[in-house]
Amino acid sequence: MAVAALTDLAVEVAPGVHWVGALDPHLRSFDIILKTANGTTYNAYVVRGENGVAVIDTVKEGFADDFFRRLESVARYEEITTIVLNHLEPDHSGALPELLRRAPQARVYLSTRAQMMLKALLKPSGEKPPEYTPVTTDDTVDLGGRTLRFLHTPYLHWPDTQCTYLEEDGMLFTGDIFGCHFCDERLFNERVGDFRFSFEYYYTHIMRPFRDYVLDALALIEPLDIRLIAPAHGPILRHMPRDYLHRYRELATPRLFNEARSEKTLLVFYLSAYGNTRRMAEAMAAGAESIPGVRVSLYDLEGGDAAIFTDLIEEADGLAFGSPTINGDAVKPIWDLLSSLTSVNIKGKLGAAFGSYGWSGEAVRLIEDRLRGLKLRVPVEGLRLKLVPDTDELEKCRSLGESLARHLTGRIEHRELDLAAIA
């Protein structure tokens, strides 16, 4: 099927509602971490009411000319009364400074968390922030016959994010949520190519770490009459839009069945060059399992790619990582696994490190630093042992496992201090 060329003019989404965004078909990497085999779109929208015009989001700065050309095809700048910023990341706000210069009378509406971001965005130009109103859930703007209602949906995927609901038309302008990096000039989901992979890839890398916030947002959105979802990237979802709400709920719901819901789970990942770190891992696991209410699983990273453990890690309560020290560092499979955790919500989980070494033993400390950087709790000092662990040292490993299990279950043993000894 041939792809029809997109006009330079705005594209009608519904009577009085137009897409005025930009296409970036040749982009192949977004924010460094995402691959974009189909490029992306920067979606912006215009809503016309009887008393004024609202612009919802803008585009990346390098595509501002496309945005303004399309905007001018459906509205005059003096008609613009309202500018809604659902998200202030540069790919959505790049044309904002120039829009404010062209429509200085417009009032900006943004989330309460976005106020400082707006000031920082305008700081390089030296311009004074415009007239703006911070909004939260159920605040509204009356455009005359059309009402914009705001929904507070933070951390999807920045603290400032919100959604905007056009009540009379059942349209939801969502910022990044329900979006994807997929560029197709046909714009609408029932017309474009197969973007299912891009939709789920985007969720995995952008929204998955904020799964709890996704569920909170769905609780606000699902009761609404949704006839169209207009995200900031990718196809406009006008055909069966509720299917995308259902899919997000599936993606955000825990995937693994927990046979023993009352138990805490501790995952022990390790790689062992000569079997010494493996012996430590086994002793740790035995110690942890001696504490009632803890289920332990051992995983040798030599037998599996890091990506296969993502779901398991997301559902676990505690994570321990064991590595020998080679050339002053932890081994690569450990770093690969730790790198994969940026796409998973692990904040507040328990973390620990251990390993055998032959010379300098830096791996354990490096792993602990990374765990803290990922916002895990590291309540127990890691254990590093030189070469082959003996019976006493394996008992230390067992004690480390017991201590981790006690922290997981809240059975922490408190030490009694001899005040006279420290006076």
Task: Describe the model.
It is built from 13 helices and 21 strands. By secondary structure, the chain is α/β, with parallel strands linked by helices. The chain has two domains: 11-252, 4-Layer Sandwich (Metallo-beta-lactamase, Chain A); 264-407, Rossmann fold (3-Layer(aba) Sandwich), CATH 3.40.50. The strands form five sheets. The protein has a seven-stranded mixed β-sheet, with no helix packed on it. Strands 12-13-14-15-16 form a five-stranded mixed β-sheet. Helix 11 (363-373) links the parallel strand 20 and strand 21. 44% of the residues are buried. The model is unreliable at 1-5 and 414-419 (pLDDT under 50).
CATH architecture of the largest domain: 4-Layer Sandwich
Helix proportion:
25-40%
From the 3D structure, determine the CATH topology of the largest domain.
Metallo-beta-lactamase, Chain A
Query: CATH class of the largest domain, please?
Result: Alpha Beta
Average predicted local confidence, pLDDT: 91
Q: Going by CATH, what is the homologous superfamily of the largest domain?
A: Ribonuclease Z/Hydroxyacylglutathione hydrolase-like
Give the C-alpha Rg.
26 Å
Helix tally? 13
Sequence of strands across the biggest β-sheet: 1-2-7-8-9-10-11
Structural class label: alpha/beta
Annotate the secondary structure layout.
Elements: E1 11-14, E2 17-19, E3 22-24, E4 29-30, E5 34-35, E6 40-42, E7 45-48, E8 53-56, H1 64-72, E9 80-85, H2 90-93, H3 96-102, E10 107-111, H4 115-122, E11 132-135, E12 140-142, E13 147-152, E14 162-166, E15 171-175, H5 196-207, H6 211-221, E16 228-231, H7 242-252, E17 264-270, H8 276-289, E18 294-300, H9 310-315, E19 318-322, H10 332-340, E20 350-357, H11 363-373, E21 383-386, H12 391-409, H13 419-422
Parallel strand pairs: 8-9, 9-10, 10-11, 15-16, 17-18, 17-19, 19-20, 20-21
Antiparallel strand pairs: 1-2, 2-7, 3-6, 4-5, 7-8, 12-13, 13-14, 14-15
